[in-house]
Amino acid sequence: xxxxxxxxxxxxxxxxxxxxxxxxxxxxxxxxxxxxxxxxxxxxxxxxxxxxxxxxxxxxxxxxxxxxxxxxxxxxxxxxxxxxxxxxxxxxxxxxxxxxxxxxxxxxxxxxxxxxxxxxxxxxxxxxxxxxxxxxxxxxxxxxxxxxxxxxxxxxxxxxxxxxxxxxxxxxxxxxxxxxxxxxxxxxxxxxxxxxxxxxxxxxxxxxxxxxxxxxxxxxxxxxxxxxxxxxxxxxxxxxxxxxxxxxxxxxxxxxxxxxxxxxxxxxxxxxxxxxxxxxxxxxxxxxxxxxxxxxxxxxxxxxxxxxxxxxxxxxxxxxxxxxxxxxxxxxxxxxxxxxxxxxxxxx
Length: 348
What we know:
The chain is an all-alpha fold. It has a single domain, classed as ABC transporter involved in vitamin B12 uptake, BtuC. Helix content is about 75%, strand content about 0%. It has helices spanning about 1-10, 25-50, 55-80, 90-105, 110-135, 140-160, 185-205, 205-215, 220-225, 230-255, 265-275, 285-305, 310-345, and strands at about 165, 255. The longest helix is centred in the last third of the chain and has 37 residues, at about 310-345. It is globular. The chain starts with a helix and ends with a helix. The relative contact order is 0.19.
C-alpha cells in the first residue's frame, strides 16, 4: 500500500507517503487552490466594477443565502467522491425532507419533533443508498439516479403539488436575519462551521486517510485493514442526514415547503466539488479547495444574479465548470507526469 501511495504522490509533486498534512503543503496551494483564489478576486473586481452596490451588506447576505445550501450539500459529497463514489440524490433528499416537514407542520406535529423525524428520514434514505452500493455491490451512479427519482416521487406523493407556507417556531428568522454583528447569513455560517469539522476529519484523522486510500486503490485499502464497506455506508448515511438538514434550512429560508424544491441542484453540487480540485476518480483533493470553490463560484454566481442573467444561462456556466473541473486537472496531471519523466531521463 505504501508503494502505491508514494507513486501517486510523485505524480502530484509531493514526496513521501500519502498523509493528510501533505495535502495542505505549499506546493499544493500554488496550483489549483491558487487558481480558485484568482477566480474569486476576478469576480470581486468585475462585480465591483460593474455594480455600485456589489460590496453592500445585502449582496454579501444574499450570496450566502443563494449558494449556502449548495455549499452545505457539497461537504458530504466531497467525502463520498474522495472514496471514488458519487451521490446524485442530494437535492432530491432536500426536496423530500422539505415535503415531509411541510406535511408534519400542516398536521400540527410539534416543530422540534417534526425536525427529528425529518433528520431520521434523511439518515434512512442515505442508509438505503449505502446498503445498495456497499452490500449489493451496485454502482453508485446508477443507485443514486434511481433514488433521486424515488425521493422526488415520494415527495410528490406526500405533499402533492400543494405548497405549505407561514411556518412558525423559533427558526422563522433564519432566512431573513444575519448572524449578529456580521453581514453573513446563518446558512453560510453553518457551512463554515461544518467545513471546519469536515476538514479536520478528512485531513487530520485516520478515517480521512482511509477515505483517500479507498479512492486511490480500494482493493489495497481493504487488504490493509480499512473497513471499506463500513466507511462508505456511513458516508451515505451522513450525506442523507446533512441533506435533510439542508431541507429544513431551505424550508425556513423560503418559508415554503414543496416537493420540487432544489430540483436540478445535484449537478451544481457535484460541479462545485470537482471544481474544488477533488478527483472524480477519488483519492485526490482537499476540503480547502472545495471551500475556495464555493466562495469563488458563489461570488461569480451572485454577480450573474445581480446582472439579471437567466437561470438557463447560469446553468450553462455550471455545465462549463463541470467540464473544466474534469478536464483541466487531468491535463495538468498529464503535463506533470511528462515533465517528471523528462526530468528523470535527464538526470540519468
